[in-house]
Fold this sequence. Notes:
Elements: H1 11-20, H2 24-27, H3 40-47, E1 51-54, H4 56-59, E2 61-64, E3 77-78, H5 79-82, E4 89-94, E5 100-106, E6 109-112, E7 115-117, E8 122-125
Antiparallel strand pairs: 1-2, 3-8, 4-5, 4-8, 5-6, 6-7
Amino acid sequence: MVTKKIKLKTPKLAKIKKAYGKHFKECDPDENGWSKEPCGFELQLCIKDEIDYLNFDVSNTWRPLSLKGIETNNGWKTIQEHGYPKDMQKVSVITPTDIIVDTIYISNHFKCIGTSIDNVTHWRPKEIIPLPIY
């Protein structure tokens, strides 16, 4: 389902605009990059197999495949938008150089082997991967 139209200038909007390129206005995507507008760009993406459909048979809603996961930013939380974790927990963080580090958030710091990690841009709770059952 197509949601409300984009109004704010955000990093999310910049990614959506980049994905649509010169077709942004013509395709008129919503805040999660979905479009219902038929335009030549949809056909170009389809030919390259770079298109994502949302209930195609029902709504004919589509977007560039590069936007898949944009609703949740693939589970990453930005410090700017969400702040820091509320309590002590194991997290993965991204540094300004785009390095992912598994760490722990404790006493208002991201720590790894006793060292604080500064200038973190994104974080997400560390996923506990269960062992196989058999």
